Each structure stands twice: as structure tokens, then as C-alpha cells.
Amino acid sequence: SPRFEERFEELNKIAKEVQDLLPILSLPDATKPVQLASGTLSTLTKQGRGGTYVILASTLRTDQEVILSLPVGGKQVRDLRTHELMRTRGNRVFLPFKSLDARVLVVSAR
Asked: Which secondary structure element, helix H or strand E, spans residue 92, and what is its range?
């Protein structure tokens, strides 16, 4: 049925996203994690050679504006998937976050 094919495609997409995350998930936890200053997200901060990886997931069914607090200012923050640079001010990162969205950010020296 078309509905089954649609769901199967979605499951394949989710499985690929999880597979892509495995190398990051196996990294050690960051000693100085990113903190959530405003908003409702689950966060996980991992330390790699290329920088600090921040995995963010929303369980809210509404969009929200999120503010992250970096352990130190002067960092570049980009979305791992889209390569978009995030708006920062000092040690704060301001993110629009969609309902039930998940993102991986990379924090590195400028």
C-alpha cells in the first residue's frame, strides 16, 4: 500500500540519520558542555578533534526560540547538516527550533 511505502521510506531516513550520528555518539563527553540558557531541549555534548559536537532534540510540538550558553566566547557555531553559521553574541547562540526537530551543531575556534 502507498501508506506502507511512505512509512518504510521514513524509517529508512531515520535509520540513516542514526547511522550518521554513531561516530559522534561514540566520542567522549565534553568536559565543558554547552548549557541550555533558554528553551526546552535534550542536549548531549561530545568532544572530537574537529570541535565540540552538540546534539539537540526537541520534544515540544511547538516551535521555539532557543538560547545556548557556550563554555567560552569567541567560537564559531555551525549546523553539521546544512553548514549554516549560527548567530552568536558573546558566549550565547540564538536558534530558532522547529517542533520535534533535532540538530547537530559543531562548536570550533573561529
From this structure: strand 92-97
